[in-house]
Amino acid sequence: MTVTGIITAIIVGLIIGALGRLVVPGKQNIPIWLTLVIGVVAALLGTVLARATGVADTKGFDWIEFLFQIVLAAIGVALVAGYGSRRRITR
To answer: What are the boundaries of each domain within the chain?
Structure first.
């Protein structure tokens, strides 16, 4: 992977994190930096999942890969937000 590829992955991850947060209903009490980290991880995992299922190599934009990434980001945001809210209740 080149430096350009890493920078592109980070930028796409930031966008994925923001979209994942928009998909999750309600207010998420997590910092924006954590949302962005979740987005980067979801973008990487979504790409791995798309390649494993054979849908990553299409002509044009990879909509299925993009959907995998957004769903993974939404799941990550929901899990982290849920974990944080349970932690605050038990204190």
So the answer is: 31-91
